[in-house]
Amino acid sequence: MSHILLIHSSVHGQTVKICEYMKQKAESQGVKVTLATLADNPSVEGFDKVFIGASIRHGKHRPALYQFIEANKEKLEAVPNGFFSVSLVARKPMKNTPETNMYYQAFLKQSVWQPQVQEVFGGNLDYQFYGPVDRNIIRFIMWITKGPTDPHTKVEYTDWDKVDNYVQRMIDA
Ligand SMILES: Cc1cc2nc3c(=O)[nH]c(=O)nc-3n(C[C@H](O)[C@H](O)[C@H](O)COP(=O)(O)O)c2cc1C
Q1: What is the pLDDT of residue 1?
Q2: Which of 9, 40, 111, 116 has the maximum number of C-beta atoms within 10 A of its C-beta?
């Protein structure tokens, strides 16, 4: 049985939710998936494939992501691999592919590892869950990108069909 390591870098849990869904979907097809938190600096050895998912905060993936990649570059490249990014901007039709999403493009420029299976997913918006400073920053981002600014808005932009498709690409990689 193929064994995938799926590492997440998440602040408010949406990337974890996506990874848990991926694990359930892949395991229903007979593929074993182990989830790990990037902050725990997991060992990537002993797996048939390694995938990483990370969310955007204040326009960036977290520095720990790049540190992890630099420390594990050769091991990541030795097996089928992939990376996906989760953000609110990725909800927009013109920004919902690795090629058109500025955060994914910035990742590819900054990362010493060029992942094989690439994707972007829309994230979760829940204004009441954030503190007042973060709430207003995100309202500003949403205002710029013509999204909802009502502070009671709660909406999940993740396209689960797209996640299903990514799971299949992981299995096929
Ligand atoms: C403080 C904060 C800053 C954020 N900054 C951005 C941003 O600059 N661009 C963007 O597209 N999404 C931004 N987001 C949205 C998150 O990427 C989105 O909510 C995602 O679902 C978070 O995933 P996570 O829960 O796994 O961390 C931000 C969210 C928070 C809470």
Answers
A1: 79
A2: 9
